Amino acid sequence: MSQRGMAAILQTHLPEDMRMSRALPGIRPETGPWLRVDEAYAEQMARREDLLAAHPADVLYLEPDAHPAADELLTMVLELLPELGFDVLANSARCPDGRLVRIDRVAPMATLGRLCQNDFVLMQQCGEEHVLTGAVLCFPASWQLGEKAGRPLTEIHIPVEDYTDDMARRVQRLFDGIHVGRPLWRFNQLWYEDPELFQPRSENAPRRVGAGLQDGPYYRTERQTLLRLPHSRAVVFVIHTYVLARADVPPLV
């Protein structure tokens, strides 16, 4: 599943609000744009096109009942794209890299995956928990969509050791409290040996031993936004992935 032998797809800098810190920030209100185009757009989109064509079952999921939420998300994204250099027409969109993408309302998650650098995960209320009902996930960071699809938050985080019952309740309260028009965001930070963007890993596979903040030649971070759709009330987990070579990583602050 690696891109070994191919040129690494890297950014050379991070947004100002994501400069490395010794203490990762918690969830905070989103004050900047949650949908972005950066210097790696063309290369990341070429990789996404490859994955969507060659591995659709690994990167796409949509439950039939979740289609209205996915279509609502696509409509929201299309409204934002002209501000990012897209030319949006009635049935297609011209992307900043020159590709013409057909707007396919039958396959909204695939369309989103061909338009945006972001991955999108739909979480919808089912009983007392939010369940993963749809996604386009081309750039997983050590998890597999097929193992998490259709599962609630508590099961999605298996086998995270510090995801206790108390933590699960806190995360569920966070999801319950997300308001329309008031998105939240956070970021993570990891070090990898391989810059490949498509990094699926089974929850049963052993984790790297001794992997710390400064382990590995490539710094990988995700800008993660949580927002609520106004009509379906679904929560969307929006993931923008950055990978930098160690030499380009800003110093700890």
Structure notes:
- The chain is an alpha+beta fold and 253 residues long.
- It is 24% helix and 23% strand.
- It has 7 helices and 11 strands.
- The chain has helices at 41-54, 56-59, 67-80, 108-115, 145-148, 153-156, 165-176, and strands at 28-29, 60-62, 87-88, 92-94, 100-102, 119-126, 129-136, 184-187, 190-192, 218-228, 235-245.
- The strands form 2 sheets. Strands 1, 2, 6, 7, 8, 9, 10 and 11 form an 8-stranded antiparallel sheet that branches. It has a 3-stranded antiparallel sheet with strand order 3-4-5, with helices on one face.
- α3 packs parallel to α4 (108-115).
- The two termini are 34 Å apart.
- The model has no long low-confidence stretch (mean pLDDT 89).
DSSP helical segment count: 7
Mean pLDDT: 89
Helix content: 10-25%
Global outline: globular
End-to-end separation: 34 Å
Rg computed from alpha carbons, rounded to a whole number of angstroms: 18 Å
- Bin the strand percentage: 15-25%
Largest sheet report: 8 strands, antiparallel
Unreliable stretches (pLDDT < 50, length at least 5) are none
What's the β-strand tally?
11
Spell the H/E element sequence. Answer: EHHEHEEEHEEHHHEEEE
Helix vs. strand class: alpha+beta
Secondary-structure map with pairings?
Elements: E1 28-29, H1 41-54, H2 56-59, E2 60-62, H3 67-80, E3 87-88, E4 92-94, E5 100-102, H4 108-115, E6 119-126, E7 129-136, H5 145-148, H6 153-156, H7 165-176, E8 184-187, E9 190-192, E10 218-228, E11 235-245
Antiparallel strand pairs: 1-8, 2-7, 3-4, 4-5, 6-7, 6-11, 8-10, 9-10, 10-11
